[in-house]
Amino acid sequence: MSRSAVHQQSAGGVRGRLRAAYRTRQDRGDRWGSADLTGWWRDAELLRDLGPALAGLYDESPTVVVGPVSRGAMIGALTAAALGVGFVEARKEIAQATDSDRWVCRTTGPDYRDRNLVFGFRRGLLRSGDRVLMVDDWADTGATARTVRQLVEDCGAHFIGAACIVDGLLDPRLRHDLPVRALLDVRTL
Ligand SMILES: O=P(O)(O)OC[C@H]1O[C@H](OP(=O)(O)OP(=O)(O)O)[C@H](O)[C@@H]1O
Ligand SMILES: Nc1ncnc2[nH]cnc12
């Protein structure tokens, strides 16, 4: 059985527990409400099991994990620890320390809140031979995942794909094209 097939079996329990701990916060008259993910991080067993479950979404072994701040960085670090590889934050504030401190930066297309955000990290954190797994909690427009993919490719590294907790992709083609894999489909929450 492949690595992802083995992991997918054990991820079955994680999926059920994620659904049970998820809440939509909604006032009367509010059509959509907002997603409350805090229960996922508050549950010690879920927190322990999330990294291995996300790590198992792809068979290809990464050499490094990249996670966009803030929630992508938190669960990205859990996933990197489960895989035994290092972790790179994709930061929203570019904090170049000196003129010689080279960063790679890219601006997203409109994200789920219609923002164009600048993401980046120190150029030296990725090598051209790296195989990179991106981790995030949620994919919606895919703008964040697309931008991280560009940053990885700017470094000459290989983008394996995005491993997310929730697939809420508005454009289903991105699932294959980026690619994006997730533990939960938004319609099952
Ligand atoms: O597919 P997209 O439309 O790009 O949306 C996905 C991004 O949106 C959320 O981040 P958010 O900006 O809410 O940041 P946070 O993790 O700091 O809360 C989420 O963590 C993803 O990074
Ligand atoms: N609808 C949503 N709820 C919470 N986080 C998100 N990130 C992107 N879309 C989101």
Shape: globular
Mean pLDDT: 94
The small molecules bound here are: 1-O-pyrophosphono-5-O-phosphono-alpha-D-ribofuranose, adenine
Question: What is the CATH class of the domain at 58-188?
Answer: Alpha Beta
Task: Determine the structural class based on helices, strands and strand pairing.
Answer: alpha/beta
Q: Radius of gyration, rounded?
A: 16 Å
Spatial strand order of the main sheet: 4-3-7-8-9
* Helix and strand run: HEEHHEHEEEEHEHE
Which architecture of the domain at 58-188 per CATH?
3-Layer(aba) Sandwich
pLDDT under 50 segments (min length 5)? none
Rounded to the nearest angstrom, the distance between the terminal CA atoms is 29 Å
Classify the fold: give the CATH topology of the domain at 58-188: Rossmann fold
**How many DSSP H or I helices?**
6
The counted number of beta strands is 9
Could you describe the largest sheet, including whether it forms a barrel?
Answer: 5 strands, parallel
Approximately what portion of the residues adopt beta-strand conformation?
25-35%
How helical, in percent, are the residues?
A: 25-40%
Protein name: Adenine phosphoribosyltransferase
Keywords: Glycosyltransferase, Purine salvage, Transferase
Pfam family, one: Pribosyltran
InterPro entries: PRTase-like, PRTase_dom, Pur/Pyrimidine_PRTase
